[in-house]
Each structure stands twice: as structure tokens, then as C-alpha cells.
Amino acid sequence: MADAVHIPDEAETRARWGAFAWTAENAEQAKKVIARYPAGRQQSAVMPLLDLAQRQVGAETQTQGWLPVPVMEYIADQLDMPYMRVYEVATFYTMYNLAPVGRYHVQVCGTTPCMLRGSDDVFSACKNKGLVKGGTTPDGLFTLSEVECLGACANAPMVQINDDNYEDLAYDSMSAILDDLAAGKQPKIGPQIDRQTSCPEGGPTSLKDMVKENHDYRGEWA
Amino acid sequence: MPKVKVDGVELEVPAGATVLQACEMAGKEIPRFCYHERLSIAGNCRMCLVEVKPGPPKPQASCALPAAENQEIFTQTEMVKKAREGVMEFLLINHPLDCPICDQGGECDLQDQSVAYGRGGSRFDENKRAVTEKYMGPIVKTVMTRCIQCTRCVRFAEEVAGVPEIGAIYRGENMQITTYLEHAAKSELSGNVVDLCPVGALTSKPYAFEARPWELKKTHAIDVMDAVGTNIRLDSRGRQVLRAVPRINDDVNEEWASDKTRHNVDGLVRKRLDKPYVRKDGKLVPATWNEAFAAVAAVQHGGSVAALAGDLLDCETMFAGKALVEKLGGTMLEGRQTGLAYDVSSLSAVNFNTTLNGIETADVILLVGTNLRWEAPLVNTRLRKAIKKGAKVFGIGPQVDLTYKVEWLGNDASLLAKLPQAVVEAFGKAARPAMIVGGGVLAKDGAHGDTLALVETLGLIKEGWNGYNVLHFAAARMGGLMLGYATQGGIKAVAAASPKLLFSLGADEVDYSAFEDSFKVYIGHHGDKGAHAADVILPGASYAEKAGTYVNLEGRVQRGEKAVFAPGDAREDWSILRALSEVLGATLPFDSFEQLRAEMEKAVPALGQIGLADYGWPNNLKDLPSLPTGASGEFGSPIKDFYLTNAICRASPTMQQCSAELIHGETFAEAAE
Question: Is B165 in Cβ contact with A84 (below 8 Å)?
């Protein structure tokens, strides 16, 4: 557990990513991000820039992207930071991938609320589709990781796939989502049951009159 | 000046002091792991919890809490006791119980504090975390499972050493301390993280499994690897010095020591001269002391005698050598082995006048022909402190990475005569301007004069401030100059006079091909270049094997003690010279080390007073020696390889490995790319 994630061979990644540079669009964006902070405090831009770089790497490789070491060094040079400080940030946050991932990064929440509401079923749905925790499927489509709370406990269990949340899952709905993605279709984002965002299932349970109009409850207060 | 109460005792603390410091001033011991006086405050170990009123009703980390007026601090209450026990228990959750095989055992903060403040048992019976070992170079051995993430090493690397290569990666329970991509930490100060580490996570690689602290004899000594005069403690067992660690001296080395200082000691037991040798038919053959002395006595010198002093010598040896040469009728003494011939008519013109403490307060600094990082790593840390306070640094000379921002003006000695306007302006505005003149300058004709001429132009002299500094890097240099080990014209003049009898006192950097006609008597401790060229070898003692007086680059007279005995037949240098003088019919007037020291103090009174020697910087700048000026061309670097600068280092496997890996390994790798 405490061992480092397998970081791809250094010489190889240097050969592949040593010449990394922003695309024209991202260079513009990077400049904007850096301009948000006062001069001399440009290091604060490290997190948005790492995210931007990860997305650019993703676009180049048709995946969700990751952060090869030369890319981190490129950002460190741009922000005038020691390499180690950037590396620390990138390893601290689980949202930065230190190894290549597939086109869909399936991040299943396994923290207590989701677990109580059936995240084990979600995992078995993934498992039955051939996804392995911490690994990428041979076709390069899915990478499965177990993550800690993503802050959607009201809709547990949930997964985050790329930038979208899929909530109120069950074994079947999770399988359907994975099938859709594999088939190149966009599944419905958000709750997979009859429910609007995190509102009560089957409609409101309180302030019901408010649904139709701006109802004045004051007269009903005893 | 806030007034606080510590455990009911009222005291006044300096403004800006922390609660922890206030407690220490009150004489209370506050346990800590992450807090260190010379590093920034991290506040992440939580061991220093105390109870503070007014404040929230919970224990507070005293290291990061400023002491405030009318604060009441409690360090002995039940709450504090329980808090310490709790923190200790948490720290020990993932700490292995491998003290019996841990090199830190016996001098481990975690061990000591768990005995003093722990609860004596653990309620944790889950699995412990394990962390793979990290590679940190040839000096630092890592056992990362023992790490308690105090981050002292991370802060040291960034703040003091200036190589931000150590960091903490991952998070929470998976947090690990490592160097960037596990490359060796490229610092000449990396050994200090071993002392800083409060547990056994970072230990000394060359010293691994060598000894326990309680079986070592501890001797206070002075380091001779560079001219800073680092105060060290030599830990020895039997006849071998096992390690050297720095002693705290805020005027000299603070709390640090360079890797060379720490790890040359394994060179003290290798390539040693342990019996006298005499050259017979072109080959050196072992001999007895009497045979060796007879061979020297047979030389018909007729008063043509000279002595060359090495870089590692103590003043007593040099004084005894000088006394013998003079008694035999010789006059020529030289210690600048590589051929430097700078003027020494005023020692203050070749001294580090600002002092090591003073350079921290400089606000504009000009480096001339010096690689501080190699010539005096600990002076470089002082400069880093000055820069932290806002000092600006200009540099003339070969461009090197000094771990901070230097505005390089170019590598051309003629720049000294025509400094760019920006530099002159910066110096004009400076309140405490300083110039540091390195060995590259002293080697160049005219450059020393050029820098002295700048004293007035740049206004280096102010009320209570002298900003002119020459940086030596031989431990014996200032002492040698005080004793007169300098001949007009340098070693070339000595060679030109072709002395019949030449005493080489551990002089290993000399080009002996210039002394082919001389009968060379080598008195030293290592079978290095000096011994190879000698006609008679008299085995002497290294710095660890004799007491001695040393003068560092700022003219600070310091004394070291004798840690162990020299190996085999080797003797202390002064006693060799004394015995030899009798055979040569010129008996020296001292029979004991104390008498020798008394004689030396009579001859040079300054050597008898511990502390800064006064070289008498002239009241009037006109009285500075007027030296030739007008140097031009590039400055060279006098040190080719930081780790192999003297005979002891060259014999040390650790230093050889450092050199191969950290200096040559890098160039090899670059060449391959």
C-alpha cells in the first residue's frame, strides 16, 4: 500500500514527453491563470496548470490524461519552482494521475455513506465488465479507481467518470452506464433514478405548495 | 517584551518569541520533533503541546504560538501530560520496534522522549505501515519506515543547503520523504540531515552498524578540511576515529558541517604511513627511526634548509618546523603549496575581515573568482542567510550554481578595474557592503591589487564594518602566515634557491619536480604525493591524532584535542622534529608539548589567545600595501574536485565515492545524453 504507484520508466517518458509545450490555446489559458496571482506569487498557479497539462496530455493521447515527469518539470520551469515542490503537489492530490489512464476514468466512491448504500454492487458491476481496480482495460477504454468521498453522499452510491457524476447507482444502472460508454453513447448524467439532483425521491416531502407558486405559508403558522 | 507566566513563574521574553522559547527560558523542557532553532517552524509533530491561558480549552502547539502579554503557560498539568502521551502513542503507531538494529539507538529523540513522556505501552494492534527505502546518495542511508514526517530534512534542504530536492510526496498515511525521483541529493551539506533526523530514518551510510554512541570516546577537535575551522567532535573507539560530528559554535559553523568534514575520517585508517622509510637505490624501503634520522643527518646542507607546510597542519607543528629550519641556518618557509605568491605584508589584506557572523548582515556582496560552495560551503550558508534578509550578490568569475541568485558580470579580471555602473551604484547605496575574494584571484597577477584598490572605490570600510574578505580554503593558511610560512615569490623562489635539505611537513599538493636536487624529508601521515617524492619519510600524526592550534579564515584561533594515537610507529609531528633536531645537533628548546606551545605563544602572542586575532587593518587606507594592479583574463578555479582536496580525502573511500557519483557521475551522464 505504501509503495509508490508504478511510475512509468523515466527514460521512456522523457523521450515521449520531453518536448512537451502548451498548445496555443492552453498557453493563453496558462497566462490567464498566472495573471490571477500577484507577481512573485505565481507559484499559486501550480494546481490549475497541472490540471490544464493533464487535460492537454489527455487530448494528445485520447485518454483522460496524466502527468509525465517532464510535463511537471515544464510547469515548474514556467512557475520558477523547484521540481520537487511541483512533484509534491501532483502526488498529494488523487485527481492528478501519475500513470496513464484509459479514455474513461471510473472513480468509484467507497467511503462509508456510499458503501452503506451499495457501492459494493457498483464495484461488482465494474468487475463483471472486466474493470480491475487500479488498472486499465486492455482496450484502453476504462480505468477503475476507488476514491474517497466525492461529496455527493445524498446521492450515494456514486461514481465520477471523467468530469461527470453518476449518482444513485445500482448494479444494473452502473452496468448500463458502462455499456453505453463502451458503445460510444453518452449516458444520462446525474441521478440514475427518478429524482432531480439531490431532491427527495418521488417529489418534494415538505413545502409542497411551493412547487406551483410562491405560496405564502405565514397564515398557516399557529 | 511580553511578560508571561510559565508554571506560575513570571518572566519577560523578547518580542516575537514563541511559547516554546518562553518555556525554555523558564527552564522547562518541552519535547519536540519537528521544531528546530535554525529551521522554519512547521508545527506538524504536535509533541510540544502545552496548556495556554487565555485561549481555547485545549492543548496548543507551543512551537508555533507566539508568546503574548499576560499569557499563562502550563507545562506540567494533567491535560499536557495526557496530550503528550497521546501524541507519542500516535507517533509510535507506525514506527517499527527495531531499535536493537537501528543506528540511531542511544541518541534517538523518539527513544528518549517516549521514555520520558510516553505512556509505556501501545493500544494499537493493527498492521503497521511499511515504506520502501529511498536513495539519497552516498552519505545518507534511509530506513523510511522509521520516518515520523517531521520534515526537518525537507526544510534543511530548502532553507539551509539551498537544494530543494528533498520533499514529502503522497499524503496522509502514505506520505513519504524522498529526494526528487530518488536521485542523490546534490549538496555538500547533505550529511547534516542525519543529525537533524530525530529518529533513525536518515542515518549515516559510511557509519552504518559501526558503533553505539555510549561506547565512543568523544573528543573536541577542529576540522582541517577547509579554512572555516568547523568545530567538531571526533567519536573514537580504541585507536580508530569512527565519525566526526559538528559541535555548536554560532561564530563559526553554527550547527553544521560539510560532508567532507564528516566523512573524511575513514581516510584516517587507510594509506597511512606507519613506519619510517628511507630511499635506497631509488626505492623507498622501511627503516627504523634511527636509520631514518641518520640518513637526514648525513645530508651536508650547509645552512641551505627550507620547509614546506601542508594545508592540514596545526600551528605547533609549523612552529616546530620553523624553529628547526632556523636553527639549521635556513630561512625559507612556504605554505602556499600550489605556487601562490600574494603579498603578505599586511595579514589583514588576506583575511576574512567581515567575520563569518558579520557576512550574514551584509547587504551588497561582490564575489570575485570564488566558488563558495566548494571553497567554504559553510560560508555559502551564511551568504544564503544574508540573501534571505535582502542582500544582493554580484559575481565575477566562472559561473557556478551557488544555490542562490547571483548577478554574474562575466569571467574577466579586467572587470575589476571597470565595474559596471549598476554595481557601483548598488555599493554606493549599501550600508554594509562586502567583497569576497577567492583563491582564483590570489592566483592571478595583479588581481589582488585590483581588489584592494576597490576597497576605497566601493566604500567597503564603514564605521564598525570592514567589508574586504579573502577566502582561504586551507586550514593551515592563516596560522602559517602568522608564523611566517610565506617567502617572497612563493614556492617558485624556494625552488629557485634549490635548498639542499627540504622538510615537507605534510605538503602533498607541491610539484616536487622543481625540487629534484633537494634532499626531501617528508613528515606527514598519508602515503600521498609528498611521500612518493620523499627521500626520507618520517610518519607523523593527522589532525585527529594530535592536539593543536588552528587559525581559521577570519583569523579565529581555536584549539583541538587529540582523539586517538597515530598508527604503528608514527609519532606526533612536533616530537619527530624535536628528536630529529637532537640528531642534527640543533636541539630545539622544548621537551614537551606544553613547552612548545609556550615557546610558540612567546613568538606569536596572538596564537595564545583563543578567539579572533587582530591583524590591524590600517586606519588609513593609504597604509594598505600598494600592490601591482591591472589583471586581465579569466579566473580559474583552484579546486578541481570538492571531495578530493587533500591526502586524507583522497584516501577515504567515502569521499572517492562521493566524487565519482556526485561530481563525475553527473558529467558522465550528461556526456551520454
Answer: yes
